[in-house]
Amino acid sequence: MIPYGRQSVDQADIDAVVDVLKSDWLTQGPTLERFENAMAERCEAGFGVAVCNATAALHIACLAAGLGPGDWLWTSPNTFLASANCGRYCGADVDFVDIDPLTWNLDTAALARKLDAAEFAGRLPKVLVAVAFSGQSCDMHAIGELARRYGFVVIEDASHAVGARYAGRPVGCGEFADMTVFSFHPVKIVTTGEGGLVLTNRPELAEHLRRLRSHGMTRDAAQMDEASHGPWYYQQIELGFNYRLTDLQAALGLSQLNKLDAFLARRRELAARYQTLLADLPLSLPTSQPGAESAWHLYVVRLQTERLALSHRQVFEGLRAAGIGVNVHYIPVHLQPYYRELGFKAGDFPEAEAYYAQAISLPLYPAMTDAQQDEVVDQLRRLLGETARAAN
Ligand SMILES: *Cc1c(COP(=O)(O)O)cnc(C)c1O
Predict the structure, then answer these.
(1) Exposed/middle/buried for 364, CB within 10 Å: 0-12, 13-18, 19+?
(2) Which of 98, 145, 299, 362 has the smallest number of CB atoms closer than 10 Å to its CB?
(3) CA 256 to mean position of chain CA atoms
(4) Where is the active site (predicted)?
C-alpha cells in the first residue's frame, strides 16, 4: 500500500534522540528550549511554547485568549475535530463558517456576513480558529481586518502548514494571527512523534501559555500572593495541565527541522507533478490563494461526480483495492454526532458538505518516488476511465 502520508526519519534523527537519552534531561531540559527557539526563529516569531500535541496547543491558546463559558469560538467545518473541540474544552460555544468552494478554506466573505449578523444579535465570537487547510493559509489579510473591526482573537491552526508562507512571510510570524499552532504528528510536515507548538509575538501570552502547560504553577515571586517560603517555593495561581513535550521529542523535532526545506521542496515538486499529470481528468484540483505558498501537507482532488458513473465511495474503494492509500479530509465537523447533539444538522454548511461528497486525499510525502506517484495517477486514470466508459 502506498500510504497517503508518512514520516521521514533518518539516522541523524535517531542519533539526536539517543544523545538526549544519554543526557541528564529527558524532559524540561535544554533541548526543549532549543527546539522552541529554533521554531520561533525559523518562523520569525517572538516566542515558541512547545506542548505534547497540537490539540493541547489549541486548548491553551484558547484559554490564553480568555475564552470561557458564554463565549463563542468559530472555525471551519472542513478541519480535524481538534480545531473545534478546543472551544468546548473551555466551556465556550462553537460555531462554523462555511468554506470557499475553490480553496476549501474558511470563506472570508461568509465570515464577514456572519460577523455582521452576530454583531446585530450580540453574539460576536471571542476567538476565530483559522485553519490553514492542506498547508495553505486562509485569506489572513481579510481575517485580520475583520478581527480589528469586530475585536476577536485570531488563532491560526497551522497544523498542516509548518514552513508555509503568506504574503512573503513565514506562517507563524505573528503578523496575521495572535497565536499560531503547529502539529508534529507523524503525518504532518515535521514530526516529534506527538507534539505541538504555539507561536506568538506577545510576551504576556507566551508566559501564560507556559504556565498553563505546567499546572498553572509559577516560581515568579511577582505573581505570588504572599512572600516566598524559600527557594523550593512555587504557587499554583490558576488551573493548568501537564501538557509538556519531552526533550526526546524536542531532539527529534530539532533534527527534523534541519530537513524542513528539503521536505517542503519535495512536497512542492510532487504537488506540481500531480497538477500536470491529472489536468485532463474529471477532477477539480487544488487552487492557490494569492500570496500563499502552501506546505502541501495534503494533496486533495475533488471528483467531478456529475461527470462520473462511479460514486465517490466506489472510486475511493477502487483506489484502496489497488494499493493506493487514499484518505478523506475532512468529514464536516458539524455533522459529527457530538456536534449534531448540540444542534447542528445536514445542510448547515452546504459548501463543506458538497466538498466532503467529492474529496479524496492522494498520497503525498517527501520519500514518495516519482514511480509511486505515477502508479497513483495510473490507478486513478484507470478507475475514472472505467467510469467514463460506464457512463457511455
Ligand atoms: C493534526 C491536526 C490537529 C491536531 O494535532 P495533534 O498534534 O494530533 O493533536 C489539529 N488541527 C488540524 C487541522 C490537524 O490536522
Answers:
(1) buried
(2) 145
(3) 18
(4) 188
CA 217 to chain centre: 28
Considering 22, 188, 259, 345, which one is annotated as catalytic? Answer: 188
pLDDT mean for each 10 residues of the chain (392 residues):
95 98 96 98 98 98 98 98 98 98 97 98 97 98 97 98 97 97 97 98 98 96 93 96 98 98 98 97 94 97 94 97 98 98 98 98 98 98 73 47
Q: Ligand 1, closest atom to CA 184?
A: 7
Structural domains for the chain: 2-257 (3.40.640.10), 260-391 (3.90.1150.10)
d(CA 254, CA 248): 10
Q: For the whole model, what pTM was predicted?
A: 0.97
Contact assessment for residue 165 and residue 136, using Cβ atoms and an 8 Å cutoff: no
Closest C-alpha residue for ligand 1 atom 5: 54
Q: Pick from 54, 185, 184, 39: which is nearest to 129 by CA?
A: 54
* Closest residue CA from atom 10 of ligand 1: 82
Ligand 1 pocket, residues with Cβ under 6 angstroms:
53-55, 79-80, 82-83, 131, 157, 159-160, 183, 185, 196
